[in-house]
Amino acid sequence: MKQAPQEAPADAGFQIAPMIDVVFVIMLFFMVMAGAVKVEHELKTTLPGNAETAKETEMPDEITIGVSENGTVTINEDPVGQPNDKALENLYNEMMKMAAAAKQSKTKLLITVQAEEAAKYERVINVLDVLARAEINNVTFAVAEPE
């Protein structure tokens, strides 16, 4: 027996119904997620800038305490401590005078400790101890500039 030749499968063409289903699912997803979006409110902030003041603003007195690698302590590049002096009495006396002068003139005393890179940590701690004894708490640190 002879079999009949098989027919080629019919070309179904482009099916639009599954594409419409996908578009509806995506649209449904975005509609549901739109309700979950948090509303951001504007914060009323002012940025730092040039503020107009009625009177002149006084800047705090800035004192630089240097600690060299050999242990010498300086105030604004004037030596006040010997490398072997752990108590730093000269520094303490100077800090007490400056703190009293700042208190009398009602200004802030700003101390910047600037230690050289090879300075011993123990020496910097000695300086900080003296500042604590003199009740000076407005202290910052700076890095010594290479020469």
Account of the protein in words:
With 147 residues, the chain is an alpha/beta fold. Strands 3-2-1-4-5 form a 5-stranded mixed beta sheet, covered by helices on one side. Helix 2 crosses helix 3. The protein is 33% helix and 18% strand. The model has no long low-confidence stretch (mean pLDDT 80). The chain has a domain of 83 residues: Nucleotidyltransferase, domain 5 (2-Layer Sandwich), CATH 3.30.420.270. It contains 3 helices and 5 strands, in the order H-E-E-E-H-E-H-E.
Strand ordering within the main sheet: 3-2-1-4-5
Largest sheet: 5 strands, mixed
Supply the number of helical segments: 3
Helix content: 25-40%
Strand residues, percent: 15-25%
Number of strands: 5
* CATH architecture identity of the domain at 61-143: 2-Layer Sandwich
Query: What's the overall geometry?
Result: elongated
| Structural class by secondary-structure content | alpha/beta
Low-pLDDT stretches? none
Q: In summary, what is this structure?
A:
With 147 residues, the chain is an alpha/beta fold. It is built from 3 helices and 5 strands; from the N terminus they run H-E-E-E-H-E-H-E.
Keywords:
147 residues, alpha/beta, Nucleotidyltransferase, domain 5, five-stranded mixed sheet, 3 helices, 5 strands, 33% helix
Secondary structure layout plus pairing:
Blueprint: H1 16-34, E1 61-67, E2 73-75, E3 78-81, H2 89-104, E4 109-115, H3 121-133, E5 139-143
Parallel strand pairs: 1-4, 4-5
Antiparallel strand pairs: 1-2, 2-3
